[in-house]
Design a protein that fits this description.
297 residues, mainly alpha, Rhopdopsin 7-helix transmembrane proteins, 3-stranded mixed sheet, 11 helices, 3 strands, 2% strand
Length: 297
């Protein structure tokens, strides 16, 4: 068995996870029941919320069970399951963010053919490909890791099973695992970041060429929410994995920020920064109030 050390940071996990589930599930429901939000951008946002729920749910339920137990343990099968699904959905999220940037590029730079290029079938195909890439990408890492020999210490000093932390427990050669991690994770990050930067470079050029200040503000406002989500996601990723010399407690806090807090902010950003989402929410709320009023009278 693997034994996971939990610090005091564990006490703040339950409430943020509940907010994460409610916020992202609420965003999915709002988009589904609001006809004005049935566009490619919000279709991708639905899946972004779904992926955030899956990433958190791959880790947090087992962690919350540990809060009720004196013995904080997890089996090797459970540990590899956590690593696989968290890695798969995290990879899918990278590609979904890139797709959302491409969607903004087509909408602003090629508005006349937007609905032709971003057709419903095309959007479904792109999302399915993102999930498939995520599942295969995670499989590439999990299969070699499952063949390693583990001995000695069986303590992971973090609140969930993480690939790099697990590899530190291995007694066999992990050079292949490190090489695969460098190649595949590096490719994923470079490819998605380049796609995002390229899309928004063309978007910025197109916006600057617009003669109307009102048109420029309207075009840019459709991108701000997504840009904020991208900044938080990749910023959180860098904060967790770009500080190898940090203490155990610092790594715990950084992991909580990346696994729980960052996905929790995504629906909040879109609900506060996006006018279409706020209008749709007011309409649904107004219909609910009207229904309750007429029911009582």
């Amino acid at each position: 068995m693997l034994f996971i050390i939990l610090d005091d940071v564990s006490k703040v996990m339950k409430f943020p996870h509940t907010l994460l589930l409610l916020g992202n599930a609420g965003m999915i429901v709002l988009i589904r029941i609001s006809p004005q939000l049935h566009t490619p951008m919000y279709f991708f946002l639905t899946h972004l919320s779904f992926v955030d729920i899956c990433c958190s749910s791959a880790i947090t339920p087992k962690f919350l069970c540990h809060l009720l137990k004196e013995k904080k343990d997890i089996s090797f099968v459970g540990c590899f399951t956590q690593i696989y699904f968290y890695g798969a959905f995290s990879t899918a999220e990278c590609f979904l963010l890139a797709l959302m940037a491409y969607d903004r590029y087509v909408a602003i730079c090629h508005p006349l053919v937007y609905l032709v290029i971003m057709s419903q079938i095309k959007c479904v195909q792109l999302v399915v490909v993102s999930y498939i890439i995520g599942l295969l990408h995670s499989l590439v890492h999990i299969i070699p890791a499952s063949r390693l020999f583990f001995c000695g210490s069986n303590i992971i000093k973090i609140f969930f099973c993480e690939g790099p932390a697990l590899l530190q427990l291995a007694c066999s050669d992990i050079s292949l695992n490190n090489s695969l991690k460098l190649v595949f994770i590096g490719f994923t990050l470079i490819a998605t970041i380049l796609a995002i930067l390229t899309s928004y470079t063309y978007v910025l050029i197109t916006i600057l060429k617009m003669r109307s200040a009102k048109a420029r503000r309207k075009a840019f406002s459709t991108c701000t929410s997504h840009l904020m989500v991208i900044t938080i996601f990749y910023g959180g990723l860098a904060f967790v994995y770009a500080q190898p010399g940090k203490s155990h407690y610092t790594n715990q806090i950084a992991s909580v920020l990346y696994v729980i807090v960052t996905p929790m902010f995504n629906p909040l950003i879109y609900s506060l920064r996006n006018q279409e989402v706020k209008v749709a929410f007011r309409k649904i709320l107004g219909k609910k109030v009207a229904f309750l009023f007429y029911t009582k009278h």
